[in-house]
Amino acid sequence: MGVWETGNGVLELPDGRRVRGRGLRTSFEEVDPEFGIYLQDRDPRIDTWPNRWVHWPDFGLPDSTQDAVAALREAHDRAVSERVEVACGAGIGRTGTALSVLAIMSGVDAEDAVAWVREHYHRRAVETRQQHRWVSEVAASLTN
Q1: CB contact at 8 A, 103 and 135
Q2: How far apart are CA 127 and CA 81, in angstroms?
Q3: Domain with 50 in it: what CATH number?
Q4: Are the C-beta atoms of 98 and 37 separated by less than 8 Å?
């Protein structure tokens, strides 16, 4: 198995897709992604690989749910055949929230998504009640 299959922060979703979650303030992994979603207050200005920046303040919610969900759909689609990463400052709250939505897209029940990400990615993923509620709201919109 390669680094992307077993590396630090790599989460295998129920549908078999793999996505790496990480913190931008931590050391960089040895394998570059082929696509990234960056959940930050400011554009991280990464020009080494294709990516999308979602304006998302720390401990908050994305400025645009529509933009965030579109970026996550793209990440989910690309993860079929590409190395995809999702990252925020520490790689816990915003990243965990986004990974919860990806888990729902991959078949995890909406009610179980946060717990599933906490079990398989990081025990403190999805740091605020507001983020937890947002996962539920997005899940409802995905089924409509």
Answers
A1: no
A2: 30
A3: 3.90.190.10
A4: yes
Contact 22, 11 (CB under 8 A): no
Domain with 97, as residue range(s), is: 3-143
Question: Over the stretch 21-31, which tens digit does the pLDDT of each residue have?
Answer: 999 887 666 78
Task: Note whether 44 and 91 are within 8 A (CB).
Answer: no
What is the value of pTM for the model shown? 0.94
First to last CA, the chain: 38
List, in sequence order, every residue forming a beta bridge with 84; answer none if it has no partner: 19, 35
Write out pLDDT tens, residues 31-58.
889 999 999 999 999 999 999 999 999 9
Residues 2 and 36: their CA atoms lie apart, in Å, by: 19
Distance (Å, whole) CA 64 – CA 66 = 5
User: Which one-letter amino acid corresponds to residue 36?
Assistant: G
Count of structural domains within the chain = 1
